[in-house]
Design brief:
binds magnesium ion; binds 3,4-dihydroxybenzoic acid; TIM Barrel; nine-stranded mixed beta sheet; 620 residues
Length: 620
């Protein structure tokens, strides 16, 4: 599959955009006219730069409002077109995108429009140029890809074909299966975009909210499957109008874009294997990736900190014990049940405690790392001694280090052997009620949220749950859970509100993130923790009054919840009881008890938690 991307997807100058596309590994680009118009470089210089970078210039776009007009306007439009053909010759380009007329068309007649396309084809042919006609979803008379194809067929000119754009097809709810009926040689170009399911006018949706494949709501693997079956072999290009990508770092966006195409090609290959059988062959080649199953659990979570005292105290109060110190590094291992927390003091000068790494249990770490690398994940450089476990790790978009660890049937981890028992090893403070890490909640930089979702889905095989929004005193927090089907791994990604503008310590400290532990008896554990002096996040009385109104809890239970600062929720399966600790640095802990298969995260309680934490930061 030849890959391409429209320059409109990226921030920066045309020169910067071309460099980013080449760096990310694209075969070619679509030149967006606006990017060229504002460039100080001549068309010849842009052509030379693209050649030097090994990028083909696949499509010049857009040319607008051409067909369905009267004779006088047609003459003007042909004059405009010829100027662009001359420009394209300087660029060394031979394919121009023509959008269906959205403004100036006055004649709603297929024969007329097709004849005008034929005239344009004649003119284009003199310059060795071909025209790819695209139905915009909001076109005046042509807004449906099959209608555009009928006009192309009627025009019956070798230099006139169609451009398919998934946005215009899927946003209108047209059935993409119709793509298979289009003669492959008439599909001159293909653009892909995904989008979140929104209810708004289509033009605004298209111009502001498109995202890369895998970051929205559409089944683009099926869309691409229809295209592959049509016999098309040309470039598959990304055309994403997105307000965030326009401001984000262009190199990162280009890598995110490339990852989406690599992943989509694989998904499409899997889809076609399943529907057409393993012996089916198509002219377009789809590269595949090493297949990996979902991870089976969290292997560890690592917190980096210069001063580890407060963390140690907190973990001890939760019933964790220090199981050892690393033989050669200032690193401690704290465990309870299968929950492992590494406290890492390496290269942590002046660092307040923060979650730095997560380990996932996978079936085959080398294979999983190879997949991640093929998906353009950046490897984490590591120095290990000869007798140490070689661990595979890649960097997530929010810079969390993702370790791919060997899963074992009994949940043990071989690397723990490197931790000798410390001289001051404490016996666990009491009974072990925590069994494992239930979920981890990571704050995402606002401009990398979609990238993070795609990263965890494509590299780790986690699936996105429907996203939610949680009100907090400093903004609305968008939350997206990525999880395995069995819930063994649950990762909640939150977009922190843009800036904490209110004065106070919160504006300096990183947005808090947390690790939630699963426990079999949260009331007992909370009582133990109270006895050990744990500082709980204080929950206001108003919350408990509302709880009573919503759930009619037994008075004794309600009193216990309130006494212990426990929160409560219920779903169609069962009940959820949980509490939060105070925050150290940017880290806090949660302990949860899921009763009878409760499957959520206490979403109605999240605003209460955020408000309580906000109050604490105000008090300093
Ligand atoms: O929004 C637009 O005008 C526009 C322009 C060119 C395209 O290829 C497209 O899909 C939309
Ligand atoms: Mg388009």
């Amino acid at each position: 599959m030849r890959t391409s991307i429209a320059t409109v997807c990226l921030s920066g100058t045309l020169e910067e955009k071309l460099h980013a596309c080449a760096q990310a590994g694209f075969d070619g680009v679509e030149i967006f006219e606006q990017d060229l118009l504002v460039s100080p470089h001549s068309p010849a210089e842009i052509r030379a730069l693209a050649a030097e970078l090994g990028l083909s210039l696949d499509l010049y776009q857009p040319f607008r409002d051409f067909e369905g007009v009267d004779e006088e306007l047609l003459a003007d439009n042909l004059y405009r077109a010829e100027a662009k053909f001359r420009l394209m010759r300087e660029l060394g380009m031979d394919l121009m995108l023509l959008c269906s007329n959205v403004g100036t068309a006055t004649i709603d007649d297929d024969e007329t429009a097709a004849a005008q396309l034929r005239t344009l084809g004649d003119l284009a042919a003199r310059y060795g140029i071909r025209i790819a006609y695209e139905a915009l979803a909001w076109g005046k008379f042509v807004n449906d890809f099959e209608h555009a194809c009928r006009l192309v067929e009627l025009a019956d000119h070798p230099n006139v074909g169609t451009c398919l754009d998934s946005f215009h097809i899927l946003s209108r709810g047209w059935d993409p299966a119709g793509i298979e009926k289009i003669p492959a040689e008439k599909i001159f170009f293909v653009q892909l975009a995904d989008a979140p399911q929104l209810s708004m006018d289509i033009l605004s949706w298209s111009r502001h909210y498109r995202v890369f494949p895998g970051e929205g709501a559409w089944e683009l693997d099926k869309f691409l499957g229809h295209l592959v079956r049509s016999g098309y072999t040309g470039p598959v290009s990304l055309e994403i109008f997105n307000d965030v990508f326009r401001q984000a770092d262009e190199v990162r966006t280009a890598v995110d874009a490339m990852r989406s195409l690599i992943w989509l090609a694989e998904r499409t290959w899997v889809h076609l294997q399943q529907t057409d059988g393993p012996d089916a062959h198509y002219p377009m080649e789809l590269a595949t990736l090493p297949q990996v199953p979902e991870p089976t659990g969290f292997n560890f979570a690592e917190v980096k900190a210069e001063s580890t005292k407060k963390l140690q105290t907190l973990l001890g109060q939760l019933g964790f014990a220090c199981r050892g110190r690393h033989r050669t590094k200032p690193v401690q291992l704290w465990t309870q049940g299968r929950a492992r927390i590494i406290i890492n003091g390496q290269q942590a000068r002046n660092q307040e405690p923060a979650i730095a790494a997560l380990g996932f249990d996978v079936a085959d770490p080398v294979r999983a790392a190879s997949r991640a690398m093929q998906l353009k994940a950046a490897p984490v450089p590591r120095q290990s001694q000869a007798d140490e476990e070689v661990l595979q790790a890649v960097s997530a978009p929010d810079t969390t280090e993702v370790f791919l660890c060997q899963g074992t049937p009994d949940g043990t981890a071989a690397w723990t052997r490197e931790f000798g028992r410390p001289a001051d090893a404490a016996a666990p403070a009491g009974r072990e009620l925590i069994s494992h890490v239930d979920h981890v909640n990571l704050a995402q930089p606002w401009q990398h949220f979609d990238e993070s979702v795609l990263f965890y889905e494509s590299t780790l095989a986690l699936s996105p749950s429907p996203s939610t929004e949680v009100p907090s005193p400093v903004g609305l927090v968008r939350s997206q859970v990525m999880r395995t089907r069995d819930g063994a791994v649950r990762l909640a990604l939150n977009i922190a509100p843009l800036v904490m503008e209110k004065p106070g310590p919160s504006s300096e400290s990183a947005y808090p993130q947390h690790i939630a532990f699963a426990c079999t008896d949260v009331i007992a554990l909370a009582r133990d923790a109270v006895g050990r002096g744990l500082e709980f996040l204080k929950i206001p009385a108003n919350y408990y009054a509302d709880l009573q109104a919503r759930f009619r809890l037994a008075p004794e239970l309600l009193a216990t919840l309130q006494e212990l600062n426990l929160l409560y929720d219920r779903d169609q399966h069962g009940e959820f009881l949980h509490f939060y600790t105070a925050t150290v640095g940017s880290v806090f802990f949660e302990v949860v008890e899921r009763r009878n298969g409760y499957d959520g995260y206490g979403a109605p309680n999240a605003p209460v938690r955020l408000a309580a934490q906000y109050l604490l930061t105000k008090q300093g």
